[in-house]
Design goal:
The complex is a heterodimer of chains A (248) and B (122). Chain A contains 9 helices and no strands. Chain A is mainly alpha-helical. Chain A has 2 domains: 34 residues; 191 residues, Growth Hormone, Chain: A (Up-down Bundle), CATH 1.20.1250. In chain A, helix 6 runs antiparallel to helix 7. Chain B is mainly alpha-helical. Chain B is built from 4 helices and no strands. In chain B, helix 1 runs antiparallel to helix 4, helix 2 runs parallel beside helix 4 and helix 3 runs antiparallel to helix 4. The longest helix of chain B has 35 residues. The chains are: A mainly alpha (248), B mainly alpha (122). At the A-B interface, helix 1, helix 2, helix 3 and helix 8 of A face helix 1, helix 2 and helix 4 of B.
Chain lengths: 248, 122
């Protein structure tokens, strides 16, 4: 059980009971993650008024489904590997970035999903997708845990909200099945990627305590490219909506 | 009689706790001691997600017998992992954990959908 507690405890050991306390806290956080990931946000029945109840173009619908799939993929893939790859090379504050972002996601989804004011148009979607890209690509890599946790959790939660506003439909069983299947394949690819990366950094004799950190950052860098695809898709949505408004 | 989805929520919490212990404690431990490598762990997690996805793709109706037998298979594979860490048994365990998650999650999703339909039409 000890390695798990090193999420929260620096390498110099403290009293044994503190270890167990932190293990308990860590388990609670992990339970939150798994429940959050198991409850697909896109299956929720939103109470927000759908401003676009009219028929959307095919391009619009495909873009929305792709954005949902990529968001879910980023969320599950990031957290799955962040749990497995623990690094002990950083300060205590950096190590709490994962549980902090999970807590923020939890509270934002439970408390502010429907009540946060005025974040409901495509301009906001573009800004939030940029926030997601910056949080993964910049704040996480530079080791700014608080800004990363805030930007990452805010972006993940409110992208789904804007999807709700723009007519996101509930996924049926087959769509959920395909989505989970694709995420599984992506995580397997992630395993091969991380193994390859770790073998490489071991071969160049990097210090052992930064191996996990380096692998996590390399994997996150790959996830940023998916966030970049989301930015492009929001651009497509913006142009499509502008065209439809122009026609009407 | 207690509605199914209420008991399923409790099962989801138990399942989450199980996964938390497994993927938060056990897997990092065997990775640190280099008993398995990251590609095997990736395949095990992928096996979990793919078997869960297959459960949603196919029209499988879970029964109490299936639930008990898959739970026992999980327990057996976990016990095997405790004494003998093997690549294939870890992947197989991931697949069986996905089946267990599918049995527990699918009725929950089904009931939440029914609730949504009822809520929408009344």
């Amino acid at each position: 059980m000890l390695p798990f507690s090193t999420y929260f405890i620096p390498e110099n050991e403290t009293l044994p009971w503190v270890n167990y306390l932190y293990i308990g806290l860590g388990l609670c956080f992990l339970i939150c993650i798994l429940i959050l990931n198991l409850i697909f946000p896109q299956m929720k029945n939103s109470s927000i008024q759908n401003e676009n109840s009219k028929q959307h173009s095919r391009l619009f619908a495909i873009s929305i489904i792709l954005i949902i799939a990529l968001l879910t993929l980023i969320e599950i893939s990031f957290f799955a590997w962040a749990i497995i790859l623990k690094d002990q090379s950083q300060s205590f504050l950096s190590q709490i970035s994962l549980p902090l972002s999970l807590l923020l996601i939890f509270f934002l989804r439970i408390k502010f999903y429907n009540s946060f004011p005025k974040i409901e148009n495509i301009g906001w979607m573009f800004v939030i997708s940029l926030g997601l890209t910056f949080s993964l690509g910049l704040f996480f890599t530079l080791g700014i845990p608080f800004i990363f946790a805030i930007a990452f959790s805010f972006s993940l939660v409110f992208m789904y909200k804007i999807m709700d506003v723009f007519g996101m439909k509930s996924l049926d069983y087959k769509q959920i099945g395909y989505l989970v299947f694709i995420i599984g394949i992506f995580i397997a690819l992630g395993g091969f990627y991380i193994q390859n990366h770790i073998e490489f950094i071991e071969s160049i004799k990097m210090p052992a305590n930064v191996i996990h950190l380096s692998a996590k950052q390399a994997w996150t860098k790959e996830l940023v490219s998916l966030a970049g695809v989301i930015v492009m898709l929001t651009g497509i949505l913006f142009l499509d909506r502008r065209r439809s408004l122009h026609i009407n | 009689m207690t509605p199914l989805y209420k008991t399923e929520k409790f099962n989801v919490i138990l399942l989450s706790a199980l996964f938390a212990v497994w993927y938060g404690c056990f897997i990092p431990t065997i990775l640190t001691s280099k008993m398995v490598d990251y590609s095997v762990v990736g395949l095990a997690v992928a096996g979990l997600l793919c078997s869960l996805g297959l459960f949603f793709l196919q029209a499988i109706h879970s029964s109490k017998l299936a639930f008990i037998s898959i739970s026992l298979a999980n327990a057996g594979l976990m016990a095997l992992q405790m004494v003998l860490v093997n690549n294939w048994s870890l992947i197989l365990l991931g697949i069986f954990q996905g089946l267990l998650a599918g049995i527990i999650l699918k009725p929950l999703v089904l009931n939440s959908d029914k609730y949504k339909i009822r809520h929408t039409f009344h």
